[in-house]
Amino acid sequence: MSELYDLVIVGAGPAGLSAALTASYFHLKHIVLESIKPGGALSHNYPSKIVDSYLGFRGMKGKEVANKMIDHVKAEGSEIKYPEEVIEIKRNKEKKTFTLTTNKGKYQTKSILLCTGTIGTPRKLGIEGEEKAHYVLCDPEEFKNKKCLVVGGGDSAVEAAVMLNKVCDTVFLAHRRDQLRAINKNQEELKKSNVKILWNTELKCIADRKVKVWNNKTGETKELDVDEVFIFIGSIPKLDFIKNLGIKMEGNHIIVNSSMQTSLQGVYAAGDITGKLKRIPEAIGEGHLAVYSIYKYLRNPYWT
Ligand SMILES: Cc1cc2nc3c(=O)[nH]c(=O)nc-3n(C[C@H](O)[C@H](O)[C@H](O)COP(=O)(O)OP(=O)(O)OC[C@H]3O[C@@H](n4cnc5c(N)ncnc54)[C@H](O)[C@@H]3O)c2cc1C
Fold it and tell me: What residue's CA is closest to ligand 1, atom 20?
């Protein structure tokens, strides 16, 4: 508790890791606190998916990209503490430092960078048998030759259905609307696959090797024989500790200015939590820019 950091980075996804690298570059005394494991969504949500849109990393899987980032950051001297979840942040009385409380201890710092992403807890349907469903797809090979149902219409659902299609016997994709939200690239991949799309279809219950689905246009209910169910209908971010800090937010996103500074002096945010593109290149750029701004705030160099 006695040590005073220049910067505590909360979250070790692409934004937090990029920030850590920049903090090493600027010789800021820093630490990264991560509640699950480093790598963020790439490690927890899509370790086997091929990452697109990240320059120079063509054809690499989420976990491979994450490992490269983590190795780089550690080699430059950053310390990543995990699993350690930040549960409270308080501005100290003199208003120039903060105390962060985690499930393991307390940290004192002059500045904070919030890179907590928006993944949080998977959103549930609230249906019978839902505890049998999966909310992440780590390794499609685990489900080889099985019959699977994927629920959802966004990128996570479509990407999972396409990945499963490569190894499974049958894959259904049930979406409650008559069009998908996923980006065109993913919709094209879906068209090329053998995934059976069930439009206007809602999952009503999961039993052993069977599910009940309901068509919200025709009112028809039917049973499908499936071995595994995957639900990808979004997630609920854990925001209590951020909201309690009193910084300005818009919905579930933190409002930042062009320097990535929040409404509270000394507190910055970067990556998905700021609610912009929600892609890896954006998260990395924002993490870097935020620490550059923090360096200027803490050191006030002559060149700014
Ligand atoms: C299925 C899927 C596929 C995707 N595919 C691509 C792709 O191909 N290309 C692309 O560019 N983008 C892709 N994205 C988006 C990309 O993963 C995100 O934009 C990126 O991970 C955002 O980085 P981040 O660091 O802001 O957040 P995250 O990666 O979400 O990392 C946030 C980290 O903060 C930690 N954390 C949260 N709360 C706390 C707390 N209280 N204390 C400590 N730690 C905490 C979390 O555990 C997590 O590790 C995909 C996303 C998903 C879900």
Answer: 280
